[in-house]
């Protein structure tokens, strides 16, 4: 699997000219996001956004669909062109980006999820949720829950037979990478009493707390890794709501407490990722609640976007 990583030589450009209209920068992650004191936010197009078109030989149909017009939340749907009599499972996927950047239209996610749908013979719903800091948490969690509600309603919408007739709506999986994995976990937690989720697939899940772990303090990052400790802190500062207590912030940042999402999980961990210890802690917390968890540790890898 290839990786899209950060280019440290990238300079912020807006329409070919350096931005000079908003002088006071209050937060920045080089090459990804710049936030100004007046509230203006700039996100360079470090990864190209692409239309929902695919090569015919892939055997997957792709469509963009509106989930909520009022919040402009939408999803990119990938459905294998299968004639199999057996219904195929559904995967709801949340992209990464520290809650602040990323899109379901990014080329790396578009290509990755199209191939995933083809190889696994499953339908994939890639959710384009609202981003912080304009929409701080729990907006992304709200959008994830709304996406699931929307999905369960599609089986009853006229004109959707081209894909709903192929799908097993009793076999829904939640997945995501980095912040998207955090969203998948929290959405599963929210709907655990009302909707059956078959499983979780969490790729380098992005959780945190004030106390540093060993991997955060001492792990040497591979060149051009997509996540540094400074970037992690900035993402949390931008995405957390203003004013909550430390306890509330901790509940958002790390999965602890009596409740569990209650479904089996698959957690992908990168050996050189600063989140490694957080990910291992997540697996331990889930197992302590009786949840079956399988973990994979990818040797020599740091954080990177899917592609």
UniProtKB/TrEMBL annotation:
<dbReference type="InterPro" id="IPR050466">
    <property type="entry name" value="Carboxylest/Gibb_receptor"/>
</dbReference>
<dbReference type="InterPro" id="IPR029058">
    <property type="entry name" value="AB_hydrolase_fold"/>
</dbReference>
<dbReference type="Pfam" id="PF07859">
    <property type="entry name" value="Abhydrolase_3"/>
</dbReference>
<dbReference type="InterPro" id="IPR033140">
    <property type="entry name" value="Lipase_GDXG_put_SER_AS"/>
</dbReference>
<dbReference type="GO" id="GO:0016787">
    <property type="term" value="F:hydrolase activity"/>
</dbReference>
<comment type="similarity">
    <text>Belongs to the 'GDXG' lipolytic enzyme family.</text>
</comment>
<dbReference type="InterPro" id="IPR013094">
    <property type="entry name" value="AB_hydrolase_3"/>
</dbReference>
<protein>
    <submittedName>
        <fullName>Carboxylesterase 6</fullName>
    </submittedName>
</protein>
<feature type="domain" description="Alpha/beta hydrolase fold-3">
    <location>
        <begin position="91"/>
        <end position="301"/>
    </location>
</feature>
<feature type="active site">
    <location>
        <position position="178"/>
    </location>
</feature>
């Amino acid at each position: 699997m290839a990786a899209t990583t950060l280019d440290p030589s990238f300079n912020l450009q807006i329409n070919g000219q350096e931005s000079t209209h908003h002088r006071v920068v209050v937060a920045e992650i080089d090459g990804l996001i710049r936030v100004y004191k007046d509230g203006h936010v700039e996100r360079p197009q470090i990864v190209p956004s692409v239309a929902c078109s695919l090569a015919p030989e892939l055997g997957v149909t792709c469509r963009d669909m509106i989930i909520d017009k009022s919040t402009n939340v939408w999803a990119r749907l990938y459905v294998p062109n299968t004639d199999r009599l057996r219904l195929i499972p559904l995967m709801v996927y949340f992209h990464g980006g520290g809650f602040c950047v990323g899109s379901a239209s990014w080329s790396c996610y578009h290509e990755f999820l199209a191939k995933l749908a083809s190889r696994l013979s499953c339908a994939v719903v890639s959710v384009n949720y609202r981003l912080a800091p304009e929409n701080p948490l729990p907006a992304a969690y709200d959008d994830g829950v709304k996406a699931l509600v929307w999905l369960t309603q599609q089986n009853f919408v006229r004109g959707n037979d081209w894909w709903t007739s192929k799908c097993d709506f009793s076999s829904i999986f939640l997945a995501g990478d980095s912040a998207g994995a955090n969203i998948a976990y929290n959405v599963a937690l929210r709907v655990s009493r009302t909707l059956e989720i078959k499983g979780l697939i969490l790729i380098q899940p992005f959780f945190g707390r004030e106390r540093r772990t060993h991997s955060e303090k001492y792990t040497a990052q591979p060149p051009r890794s997509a996540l540094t400790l400074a970037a992690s802190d900035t993402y949390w500062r931008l995405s957390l709501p203003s004013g909550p207590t430390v306890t509330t912030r901790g509940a958002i940042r790390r999965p602890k407490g009596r409740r569990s999402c209650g479904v089996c999980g698959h957690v992908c961990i990168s050996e050189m990722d600063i989140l490694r210890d957080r990910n291992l802690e997540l697996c331990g917390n889930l197992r302590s609640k009786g949840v079956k968890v399988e973990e994979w540790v990818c040797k020599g890898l740091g954080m990177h976007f899917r592609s």
